[in-house]
UniProtKB/TrEMBL annotation:
Keywords: Cell membrane, G-protein coupled receptor, Glycoprotein, Membrane, Receptor, Transducer, Transmembrane, Transmembrane helix. One of its GO terms (molecular function) is G protein-coupled GABA receptor activity. This is GABA-B receptor. PROSITE patterns: G_PROTEIN_RECEP_F3_3, G_PROTEIN_RECEP_F3_4. It comes from Bactrocera dorsalis.
Length: 419
């Protein structure tokens, strides 16, 4: 009492009725068994049965209502209340002895809202997917980019014997274009999920994303990297000694980069293949339905050791990007349009460097924001690829179709400005 102060237990009435029930049971047994006081032993099973029978026959009006027992449980009336205007109101009673529900003993039942309340909160799992309109727009932009790349490829093949195109290594130009076409194609696979395909096909979509994007990067950036490396090798010698680097050597550089990609991705897929994984996000209430909780669920490409393989790829590609940016910076003063497109290749390398870093950061930080991640990654891929194509090939198209047609005998002179 000193701890509770003026507060009293709400179970005191049940305690009182319980003591009365025990007393009446003892009285009942004493009347039925004359040897109760002399032979009672609580360890004897017969006495337990006698007291259970006594409780079943006990019936009285207690302070908490009628007290009766059935199957070792108290049979009591059930008070039914409803929460109305901020407080619980009595609307009826259920008489267990009579199995009768009486709704005339209190206030009338009130149903506020369109329907009676549900007895539980309904949970809906909402499969998150890329907005279809966003996906169609991005995929259409990628298809247009592929068409533009095909135009550049046809141009490069048709005019491959023109002096300006021939000296710029047309075969390497073809690799750049093919790589750009693959990176465009990766956007289409990036937005595919089980709503547009199937659960069984999802691991194959994950594999296609990795193969296409890595191959496209190695072909496009590898070709630009090798061309920049050739210029750096030639023009870092201040005496401009002749240092011949054949196209096949540049193809070998691209081939090595592509072989490294194939080795990494093959090891990954054989030792630790992709599978579909899901993650449930923060639940929210339904916008128009009461008592409905919506749990968004995202699906991901996952593997047991994905972090290790992704770290290896990021480290390898990161070093390649840094070295490519270094070579582009070192050759920034070289002006030899026909040989290495130094300015344009350099700008392309910087462009790829910045967008790759931004894309990698976004994919890690905003991984749960599916629409936002897809929009940003698609934008970076399409922008970077389109900028690369335009920087590398628009000047060639302009020069071949305009300047060379005006003056077919025009020569291209190499210059090297001091740093």
């Amino acid at each position: 009492d000193s701890l509770r102060g003026t507060e009293y237990s709400r179970f005191h009435g049940y305690t009182y009725d319980g003591i009365w029930a025990a007393a009446l049971a003892i009285q009942y047994v004493a009347q039925k068994r004359e040897d109760f006081l002399t032979h009672f032993d609580y360890r004897v099973k017969d006495w337990e049965l006698v007291f259970l029978e006594a409780l079943r026959n006990t019936s009285f009006e207690g302070v908490t209502g009628p007290v009766r027992f059935y199957n070792n449980e108290r049979k009591a009336n059930i008070l039914i209340t409803q929460f109305q205007l901020g407080q619980a109101e009595k609307i009826g009673e259920y008489h267990s002895q009579l199995s009768h529900l009486d709704l005339t003993l209190g206030k009338p039942v009130r149903w506020v809202g369109r329907t009676p309340p549900k007895d539980r909160t309904l949970i809906y799992i909402e499969h998150s997917q890329v907005n279809l309109t966003i996906y169609i727009v991005s995929a259409s932009a990628s298809v247009i980019g592929i068409i533009v790349a095909c135009v550049f490829l046809a141009f490069n093949i048709k005019y491959r014997n023109q002096r300006y195109i021939k000296m710029s290594s047309p075969h390497l130009n073809n690799l750049i274009i093919i790589g750009c076409m693959l990176t465009y194609m990766s956007v289409i696979f990036l937005g595919l999920d089980t709503t547009l395909s199937s659960v069984a096909a999802f691991p194959y979509i994950c594999t296609a994303r990795a193969w296409i994007l890595m191959a496209g990067f190695s072909l496009a950036f590898g070709a630009m990297f090798s061309k920049t490396w050739r210029v750096h090798s030639i023009f870092t010698d201040l005496k401009l000694n002749k240092k011949v680097i054949k196209d096949y050597q540049l193809f070998m550089v691209v081939g090595i980069l592509l072989a490294i990609d194939i080795a990494i991705i093959t090891t990954w897929q054989v030792a630790d293949p992709f599978y579909r994984d899901t993650k449930q996000l923060e639940p929210r209430h339904h916008e128009s339905m009461d008592d409905v909780l919506v749990i968004p669920e995202n699906e991901y490409c996952q593997s047991e050791h994905m972090t290790i393989f992704v770290s290896i790829i990021y480290a390898y590609k990161g070093l390649l990007l840094v070295f490519g940016a270094f070579l582009a910076w070192e050759t920034r003063h070289v002006s030899i349009p026909a040989l290495n497109d130094s300015k344009h290749i350099g700008f392309s390398v910087y462009n790829v460097f910045i967008t790759c870093i931004a894309g990698a950061a976004i994919s890690l930080v905003l991984s749960d924001r599916k629409d936002l991640v897809f929009v940003l990654l698609s934008f970076f891929i399409i922008f970077c690829t389109t900028a690369t194509l335009c920087l590398v090939f628009v000047p060639k198209v302009r020069l071949v179709l305009v300047e060379l047609k005006r003056n077919p005998d025009k020569r291209v002179r190499a210059t090297l400005r001091p740093m």
